[in-house]
Design a protein that fits this description.
mainly beta; Porin; 4 helices; about 10% helix; globular
Protein backbone atom coordinates (compact mmCIF):
# COMPACT_ATOMS: atom_id res chain seq x y z
CA UNK A 1 0.00 0.00 0.00
CA UNK A 2 2.83 2.39 0.91
CA UNK A 3 4.55 1.78 -2.43
CA UNK A 4 1.29 2.51 -4.25
CA UNK A 5 0.87 5.80 -2.36
CA UNK A 6 4.44 6.83 -3.16
CA UNK A 7 3.92 5.95 -6.84
CA UNK A 8 0.67 7.94 -6.93
CA UNK A 9 2.38 10.91 -5.28
CA UNK A 10 5.22 10.86 -7.81
CA UNK A 11 2.74 10.53 -10.68
CA UNK A 12 0.78 13.47 -9.29
CA UNK A 13 3.88 15.65 -9.06
CA UNK A 14 4.88 14.68 -12.59
CA UNK A 15 1.46 15.54 -13.98
CA UNK A 16 1.57 18.96 -12.29
CA UNK A 17 5.03 19.66 -13.69
CA UNK A 18 4.07 18.60 -17.21
CA UNK A 19 0.82 20.58 -17.03
CA UNK A 20 2.77 23.76 -16.33
CA UNK A 21 5.57 23.08 -18.83
CA UNK A 22 4.98 23.93 -22.48
CA UNK A 23 8.48 25.01 -23.45
CA UNK A 24 9.35 24.69 -27.14
CA UNK A 25 12.95 24.36 -28.30
CA UNK A 26 13.70 25.59 -31.82
CA UNK A 27 16.41 27.33 -33.80
CA UNK A 28 18.84 26.79 -36.64
CA UNK A 29 22.39 25.77 -37.44
CA UNK A 30 23.67 27.96 -40.26
CA UNK A 31 27.37 27.81 -41.07
CA UNK A 32 29.37 28.54 -44.18
CA UNK A 33 32.79 28.61 -45.80
CA UNK A 34 33.82 31.96 -47.31
CA UNK A 35 36.68 33.11 -49.47
CA UNK A 36 36.97 36.88 -48.97
CA UNK A 37 39.26 39.73 -49.93
CA UNK A 38 39.16 43.49 -50.49
CA UNK A 39 41.39 45.13 -53.09
CA UNK A 40 41.77 48.45 -54.87
CA UNK A 41 42.51 50.67 -51.86
CA UNK A 42 43.34 54.32 -52.57
CA UNK A 43 46.30 54.19 -50.16
CA UNK A 44 49.30 51.95 -50.75
CA UNK A 45 49.49 48.66 -48.82
CA UNK A 46 45.88 48.95 -47.65
CA UNK A 47 44.34 45.98 -49.49
CA UNK A 48 43.03 42.97 -47.57
CA UNK A 49 44.55 39.74 -48.83
CA UNK A 50 42.46 36.75 -49.84
CA UNK A 51 41.65 34.26 -47.10
CA UNK A 52 39.33 31.29 -46.58
CA UNK A 53 37.38 31.02 -43.34
CA UNK A 54 34.53 29.18 -41.63
CA UNK A 55 31.78 31.67 -40.70
CA UNK A 56 28.73 31.42 -38.47
CA UNK A 57 25.75 32.88 -40.33
CA UNK A 58 23.28 33.26 -37.46
CA UNK A 59 23.16 29.87 -35.74
CA UNK A 60 20.86 30.14 -32.74
CA UNK A 61 18.75 28.25 -30.23
CA UNK A 62 15.43 29.45 -28.90
CA UNK A 63 13.39 28.49 -25.83
CA UNK A 64 9.80 29.76 -25.93
CA UNK A 65 6.58 29.08 -24.09
CA UNK A 66 3.06 30.26 -23.51
CA UNK A 67 0.48 30.00 -20.74
CA UNK A 68 -3.25 30.62 -21.24
CA UNK A 69 -4.59 33.12 -18.68
CA UNK A 70 -8.21 33.07 -19.77
CA UNK A 71 -10.43 35.43 -21.75
CA UNK A 72 -8.22 34.91 -24.82
CA UNK A 73 -5.08 36.31 -23.15
CA UNK A 74 -1.80 34.42 -22.76
CA UNK A 75 1.53 35.05 -21.09
CA UNK A 76 4.53 34.21 -23.25
CA UNK A 77 8.32 34.29 -23.15
CA UNK A 78 11.25 33.77 -25.47
CA UNK A 79 14.96 33.25 -24.74
CA UNK A 80 17.12 33.26 -27.86
CA UNK A 81 20.87 32.72 -27.83
CA UNK A 82 23.65 32.57 -30.38
CA UNK A 83 25.51 29.30 -30.93
CA UNK A 84 29.26 29.53 -31.35
CA UNK A 85 29.78 27.18 -34.26
CA UNK A 86 33.03 28.41 -35.78
CA UNK A 87 34.30 30.05 -32.56
CA UNK A 88 33.16 30.90 -29.04
CA UNK A 89 31.47 34.11 -30.16
CA UNK A 90 28.98 32.89 -32.76
CA UNK A 91 27.03 35.48 -34.71
CA UNK A 92 26.13 37.55 -31.64
CA UNK A 93 28.60 37.80 -28.76
CA UNK A 94 27.32 38.85 -25.37
CA UNK A 95 30.23 38.65 -22.95
CA UNK A 96 33.81 37.56 -22.45
CA UNK A 97 35.65 34.67 -20.83
CA UNK A 98 38.53 34.89 -18.36
CA UNK A 99 40.94 35.55 -21.22
CA UNK A 100 38.87 38.48 -22.51
CA UNK A 101 37.66 36.68 -25.64
CA UNK A 102 34.05 37.12 -26.71
CA UNK A 103 31.73 34.22 -25.92
CA UNK A 104 28.09 33.44 -26.47
CA UNK A 105 25.73 34.30 -23.62
CA UNK A 106 22.28 32.95 -22.81
CA UNK A 107 19.66 35.41 -24.04
CA UNK A 108 22.04 37.54 -26.13
CA UNK A 109 19.50 37.66 -28.98
CA UNK A 110 15.72 38.41 -29.02
CA UNK A 111 14.71 37.72 -25.43
CA UNK A 112 11.54 39.01 -23.77
CA UNK A 113 8.42 38.28 -21.73
CA UNK A 114 4.95 39.63 -22.40
CA UNK A 115 1.23 39.21 -22.91
CA UNK A 116 -0.79 38.58 -26.06
CA UNK A 117 -4.40 38.21 -27.09
CA UNK A 118 -6.91 39.33 -29.70
CA UNK A 119 -5.89 42.89 -28.76
CA UNK A 120 -2.27 42.36 -29.91
CA UNK A 121 1.09 41.56 -28.33
CA UNK A 122 3.10 43.43 -25.67
CA UNK A 123 6.65 42.68 -24.55
CA UNK A 124 9.48 43.84 -22.29
CA UNK A 125 13.09 42.88 -22.91
CA UNK A 126 15.56 42.97 -25.82
CA UNK A 127 14.11 42.90 -29.34
CA UNK A 128 14.95 43.45 -33.02
CA UNK A 129 12.99 46.26 -34.63
CA UNK A 130 14.49 48.23 -37.52
CA UNK A 131 17.45 46.53 -39.17
CA UNK A 132 15.55 43.36 -40.24
CA UNK A 133 12.32 45.21 -41.03
CA UNK A 134 12.54 44.46 -44.78
CA UNK A 135 12.71 40.68 -44.35
CA UNK A 136 9.34 40.23 -46.12
CA UNK A 137 10.71 42.15 -49.13
CA UNK A 138 14.26 40.77 -49.24
CA UNK A 139 14.93 37.35 -47.71
CA UNK A 140 18.54 37.04 -48.91
CA UNK A 141 20.87 36.38 -46.00
CA UNK A 142 18.22 36.91 -43.34
CA UNK A 143 15.30 34.51 -43.88
CA UNK A 144 16.77 31.99 -46.32
CA UNK A 145 19.84 29.80 -46.57
CA UNK A 146 22.21 32.38 -48.09
CA UNK A 147 25.14 33.78 -46.09
CA UNK A 148 24.78 37.06 -44.19
CA UNK A 149 27.12 38.79 -46.66
CA UNK A 150 24.44 38.52 -49.37
CA UNK A 151 22.05 41.04 -47.75
CA UNK A 152 21.66 44.61 -49.04
CA UNK A 153 22.15 45.68 -45.40
CA UNK A 154 25.81 45.83 -46.44
CA UNK A 155 24.96 49.31 -47.76
CA UNK A 156 21.66 50.17 -46.08
CA UNK A 157 22.73 49.71 -42.48
CA UNK A 158 25.47 52.35 -42.20
CA UNK A 159 26.27 55.84 -43.41
CA UNK A 160 29.62 55.01 -44.96
CA UNK A 161 30.60 53.09 -41.85
CA UNK A 162 29.11 55.63 -39.41
CA UNK A 163 26.24 54.59 -37.12
CA UNK A 164 24.78 51.11 -36.96
CA UNK A 165 21.25 52.46 -37.50
CA UNK A 166 19.73 49.83 -35.27
CA UNK A 167 21.74 46.91 -36.57
CA UNK A 168 21.77 45.51 -33.06
CA UNK A 169 18.71 44.70 -31.00
CA UNK A 170 17.15 47.35 -28.79
CA UNK A 171 18.04 46.63 -25.18
CA UNK A 172 15.83 47.81 -22.31
CA UNK A 173 12.89 47.86 -24.72
CA UNK A 174 9.12 47.78 -24.47
CA UNK A 175 6.98 47.17 -27.54
CA UNK A 176 3.40 46.69 -28.70
CA UNK A 177 2.27 45.03 -31.93
CA UNK A 178 -1.31 45.17 -33.19
CA UNK A 179 -3.18 42.06 -34.28
CA UNK A 180 -2.96 41.25 -38.00
CA UNK A 181 -5.96 42.74 -39.84
CA UNK A 182 -6.31 41.95 -43.56
CA UNK A 183 -2.57 41.37 -43.78
CA UNK A 184 -1.56 44.58 -41.96
CA UNK A 185 0.23 44.79 -38.62
CA UNK A 186 1.60 47.83 -36.82
CA UNK A 187 4.28 47.98 -34.12
CA UNK A 188 5.68 50.65 -31.83
CA UNK A 189 8.73 50.16 -29.61
CA UNK A 190 10.53 52.37 -27.09
CA UNK A 191 13.96 51.85 -25.53
CA UNK A 192 15.99 53.48 -22.80
CA UNK A 193 19.11 52.18 -24.59
CA UNK A 194 22.05 51.79 -22.20
CA UNK A 195 20.34 53.64 -19.32
CA UNK A 196 23.41 55.83 -18.85
CA UNK A 197 23.88 57.15 -15.30
CA UNK A 198 27.12 59.10 -15.82
CA UNK A 199 27.54 62.04 -13.39
CA UNK A 200 26.85 65.44 -14.99
CA UNK A 201 25.06 63.73 -17.89
CA UNK A 202 22.97 66.41 -19.58
CA UNK A 203 21.10 64.22 -22.06
CA UNK A 204 19.29 60.92 -21.58
CA UNK A 205 19.83 58.19 -24.15
CA UNK A 206 16.65 56.72 -25.61
CA UNK A 207 15.04 55.67 -28.87
CA UNK A 208 11.85 54.50 -30.51
CA UNK A 209 10.67 52.67 -33.61
CA UNK A 210 7.43 52.81 -35.58
CA UNK A 211 6.77 50.05 -38.11
CA UNK A 212 3.93 48.95 -40.36
CA UNK A 213 4.00 45.61 -42.23
CA UNK A 214 1.67 44.31 -44.95
CA UNK A 215 1.59 40.71 -46.21
CA UNK A 216 -1.39 39.68 -48.27
CA UNK A 217 -1.22 37.25 -51.18
CA UNK A 218 1.48 38.22 -53.68
CA UNK A 219 2.00 41.65 -52.10
CA UNK A 220 4.44 42.51 -49.31
CA UNK A 221 5.37 45.94 -47.96
CA UNK A 222 6.97 47.51 -44.88
CA UNK A 223 7.73 50.99 -43.59
CA UNK A 224 10.02 51.43 -40.57
CA UNK A 225 11.15 54.62 -38.81
CA UNK A 226 13.92 54.63 -36.21
CA UNK A 227 14.80 57.55 -33.93
CA UNK A 228 17.72 57.28 -31.50
CA UNK A 229 18.66 60.13 -29.16
CA UNK A 230 21.90 60.53 -27.25
CA UNK A 231 23.45 57.17 -28.06
CA UNK A 232 26.77 56.96 -26.22
CA UNK A 233 26.07 60.08 -24.14
CA UNK A 234 28.76 60.87 -21.56
CA UNK A 235 29.77 63.65 -19.20
CA UNK A 236 31.01 66.79 -20.99
CA UNK A 237 34.68 67.82 -20.76
CA UNK A 238 36.29 71.26 -20.85
CA UNK A 239 38.91 72.36 -23.33
CA UNK A 240 42.53 72.03 -22.22
CA UNK A 241 45.75 73.58 -23.45
CA UNK A 242 48.71 71.69 -24.85
CA UNK A 243 51.48 70.53 -22.52
CA UNK A 244 55.05 69.30 -22.88
CA UNK A 245 56.91 66.38 -21.30
CA UNK A 246 60.22 67.38 -19.72
CA UNK A 247 63.16 65.13 -18.91
CA UNK A 248 65.41 66.02 -15.96
CA UNK A 249 69.04 66.26 -17.03
CA UNK A 250 70.42 64.60 -13.91
CA UNK A 251 67.90 61.85 -13.21
CA UNK A 252 65.92 61.42 -16.44
CA UNK A 253 62.65 61.76 -14.54
CA UNK A 254 59.71 62.88 -16.70
CA UNK A 255 57.49 65.78 -15.63
CA UNK A 256 54.73 67.71 -17.39
CA UNK A 257 54.85 71.48 -17.92
CA UNK A 258 52.59 74.01 -19.61
CA UNK A 259 55.27 75.12 -22.09
CA UNK A 260 58.89 74.67 -23.13
CA UNK A 261 59.83 77.84 -21.27
CA UNK A 262 58.21 76.53 -18.10
CA UNK A 263 60.08 73.28 -18.57
CA UNK A 264 63.50 75.01 -18.64
CA UNK A 265 62.57 77.52 -15.96
CA UNK A 266 61.55 74.72 -13.65
CA UNK A 267 64.97 73.14 -13.95
CA UNK A 268 63.60 69.91 -15.41
CA UNK A 269 65.95 69.96 -18.38
CA UNK A 270 64.82 69.44 -21.99
CA UNK A 271 61.52 68.89 -23.79
CA UNK A 272 61.19 65.31 -25.05
CA UNK A 273 57.61 65.33 -26.40
CA UNK A 274 54.47 67.41 -26.61
CA UNK A 275 50.83 66.71 -25.79
CA UNK A 276 48.17 68.21 -28.04
CA UNK A 277 45.48 70.49 -26.67
CA UNK A 278 42.15 68.86 -25.93
CA UNK A 279 38.90 70.19 -27.35
CA UNK A 280 35.78 70.81 -25.33
CA UNK A 281 33.03 68.17 -25.65
CA UNK A 282 29.34 68.32 -24.90
CA UNK A 283 28.89 64.61 -24.16
CA UNK A 284 25.48 64.45 -25.88
CA UNK A 285 26.22 61.33 -27.90
CA UNK A 286 24.72 60.75 -31.36
CA UNK A 287 21.21 61.15 -32.74
CA UNK A 288 20.05 58.83 -35.52
CA UNK A 289 17.04 59.20 -37.81
CA UNK A 290 16.34 56.45 -40.33
CA UNK A 291 13.44 55.94 -42.77
CA UNK A 292 13.16 52.62 -44.59
CA UNK A 293 10.43 51.70 -47.08
CA UNK A 294 10.10 48.58 -49.19
CA UNK A 295 7.68 46.57 -51.25
CA UNK A 296 7.64 43.35 -53.28
CA UNK A 297 5.37 41.40 -55.61
CA UNK A 298 5.52 37.64 -56.24
CA UNK A 299 4.32 36.49 -59.67
CA UNK A 300 2.46 33.17 -60.04
CA UNK A 301 5.46 31.46 -61.66
CA UNK A 302 7.59 32.09 -58.53
CA UNK A 303 9.40 35.31 -59.55
CA UNK A 304 9.59 37.88 -56.72
CA UNK A 305 10.67 41.47 -57.40
CA UNK A 306 11.24 43.99 -54.62
CA UNK A 307 12.44 47.54 -54.08
CA UNK A 308 13.85 49.07 -50.86
CA UNK A 309 14.56 52.75 -50.15
CA UNK A 310 16.46 54.06 -47.14
CA UNK A 311 17.28 57.60 -46.04
CA UNK A 312 19.27 57.91 -42.83
CA UNK A 313 21.01 60.65 -40.86
CA UNK A 314 23.50 60.62 -37.99
CA UNK A 315 24.30 63.71 -35.90
CA UNK A 316 27.35 63.40 -33.67
CA UNK A 317 26.96 65.71 -30.66
CA UNK A 318 29.99 64.69 -28.65
CA UNK A 319 32.12 67.65 -29.78
CA UNK A 320 31.67 71.40 -29.43
CA UNK A 321 30.30 71.54 -32.98
CA UNK A 322 27.70 69.01 -34.17
CA UNK A 323 28.63 66.90 -37.17
CA UNK A 324 25.70 65.73 -39.29
CA UNK A 325 25.99 63.18 -42.10
CA UNK A 326 23.15 61.95 -44.28
CA UNK A 327 22.84 59.52 -47.18
CA UNK A 328 20.18 57.84 -49.33
CA UNK A 329 20.42 54.20 -50.42
CA UNK A 330 18.24 51.74 -52.31
CA UNK A 331 18.20 48.06 -53.23
CA UNK A 332 16.56 45.89 -55.88
CA UNK A 333 16.18 42.29 -54.59
CA UNK A 334 14.96 39.68 -57.10
CA UNK A 335 14.44 35.94 -56.55
CA UNK A 336 12.98 33.02 -58.49
CA UNK A 337 11.70 29.84 -56.80
CA UNK A 338 10.86 26.64 -58.64
CA UNK A 339 10.62 23.32 -56.85
CA UNK A 340 13.66 22.85 -54.63
CA UNK A 341 15.67 25.51 -56.49
CA UNK A 342 15.93 29.21 -55.68
CA UNK A 343 18.00 31.82 -57.52
CA UNK A 344 18.55 35.25 -55.93
CA UNK A 345 19.93 38.50 -57.31
CA UNK A 346 20.37 41.85 -55.53
CA UNK A 347 21.67 45.19 -56.74
CA UNK A 348 22.07 48.00 -54.21
CA UNK A 349 23.49 51.52 -54.25
CA UNK A 350 24.37 53.96 -51.48
CA UNK A 351 24.63 57.59 -52.51
CA UNK A 352 27.44 59.84 -51.37
CA UNK A 353 27.27 61.31 -47.88
CA UNK A 354 25.97 64.85 -47.62
CA UNK A 355 27.18 67.06 -44.75
CA UNK A 356 24.62 69.43 -43.24
CA UNK A 357 27.09 70.86 -40.73
CA UNK A 358 30.49 70.31 -39.20
CA UNK A 359 31.75 67.76 -41.74
CA UNK A 360 34.54 68.56 -44.17
CA UNK A 361 33.85 68.14 -47.88
CA UNK A 362 36.82 65.78 -48.16
CA UNK A 363 35.00 63.32 -45.89
CA UNK A 364 31.82 63.33 -47.96
CA UNK A 365 33.07 63.46 -51.56
CA UNK A 366 33.35 60.11 -53.41
CA UNK A 367 31.64 58.19 -50.59
CA UNK A 368 29.11 56.34 -52.75
CA UNK A 369 29.11 52.55 -53.14
CA UNK A 370 27.44 49.75 -55.12
CA UNK A 371 26.73 46.10 -54.32
CA UNK A 372 25.97 43.10 -56.55
CA UNK A 373 24.96 39.64 -55.34
CA UNK A 374 24.10 36.42 -57.18
CA UNK A 375 23.10 33.34 -55.19
CA UNK A 376 21.69 29.84 -55.61
CA UNK A 377 19.95 27.72 -52.95
CA UNK A 378 18.93 24.07 -53.12
CA UNK A 379 16.45 22.70 -50.57
CA UNK A 380 17.41 19.18 -49.53
CA UNK A 381 14.25 19.06 -47.40
CA UNK A 382 11.83 21.46 -45.70
CA UNK A 383 14.39 22.07 -42.97
CA UNK A 384 17.78 21.65 -44.68
CA UNK A 385 19.38 23.51 -47.57
CA UNK A 386 22.74 24.34 -49.13
CA UNK A 387 23.63 27.49 -51.05
CA UNK A 388 26.36 29.19 -53.05
CA UNK A 389 26.67 32.97 -53.51
CA UNK A 390 28.96 35.65 -54.89
CA UNK A 391 28.84 39.16 -53.38
CA UNK A 392 30.83 42.19 -54.53
CA UNK A 393 30.92 45.70 -53.01
CA UNK A 394 32.48 48.45 -55.14
CA UNK A 395 33.50 51.44 -52.99
CA UNK A 396 34.34 54.83 -54.43
CA UNK A 397 37.58 56.56 -53.44
CA UNK A 398 36.48 57.62 -49.93
CA UNK A 399 33.86 54.92 -49.30
CA UNK A 400 34.48 52.32 -46.56
CA UNK A 401 31.44 50.00 -46.79
CA UNK A 402 32.09 46.46 -45.59
CA UNK A 403 29.85 43.41 -45.12
CA UNK A 404 27.37 44.59 -42.52
CA UNK A 405 27.55 41.92 -39.84
CA UNK A 406 30.52 41.65 -37.43
CA UNK A 407 30.77 37.90 -38.07
CA UNK A 408 31.38 38.48 -41.78
CA UNK A 409 33.31 41.80 -41.99
CA UNK A 410 36.40 41.65 -44.18
CA UNK A 411 38.02 44.50 -42.21
CA UNK A 412 38.12 42.65 -38.91
CA UNK A 413 34.78 43.27 -37.21
CA UNK A 414 34.64 47.05 -37.27
CA UNK A 415 32.12 47.31 -40.08
CA UNK A 416 34.51 49.33 -42.28
CA UNK A 417 37.46 48.64 -44.57
CA UNK A 418 40.19 50.98 -45.80
CA UNK A 419 38.96 53.72 -48.11
CA UNK A 420 38.39 52.61 -51.68
CA UNK A 421 38.78 48.87 -51.10
CA UNK A 422 36.19 46.56 -52.68
CA UNK A 423 35.08 43.66 -50.43
CA UNK A 424 34.32 40.44 -52.27
CA UNK A 425 33.03 37.11 -50.95
CA UNK A 426 32.42 33.67 -52.47
CA UNK A 427 30.28 31.80 -49.94
CA UNK A 428 29.14 28.21 -49.54
CA UNK A 429 26.54 27.79 -46.82
CA UNK A 430 24.52 25.05 -45.14
CA UNK A 431 21.46 25.55 -42.91
CA UNK A 432 19.37 23.13 -40.85
CA UNK A 433 16.32 24.34 -38.90
CA UNK A 434 14.98 22.49 -35.88
Amino acid sequence: MQKKLIALAIAGLSSVAFAQSNVTISGQMKVGVDNVRAGGATAANSDYTSRTRVVDNNSNIRFSGEEALGNGTSAWFQIESAIGTDNYAGTAAGGSNTNGASVTVLGARDTAVGLKGNWGTALFGKWSVHYQSMVNVETAGLADGLALVTSSLNLLNTINGTSELGSTRLSNAMAYATPVVNGFQGQIAYTTLGEATTPLLNKKDNGWNLKGTYNNGPWAATYSYLAVNGAGAAAPTAAGGGTVNCSATATGAITVAASAAACVAGGAGVVVSTNAATAATTGNGSDVRSNRLGGAYTFPMGLKVGLIWDKSKNTNKTAAVDTTRERTAWALPVSYMTGAHKVSFTYAKAGKVSAESGAAAAVTDSTDSRMLMLGYQYNLSKRTNVSLAYTQINNNTNAVYDFWHPSSNVGGGGGVVNAGTDPRALSFNMMHSF
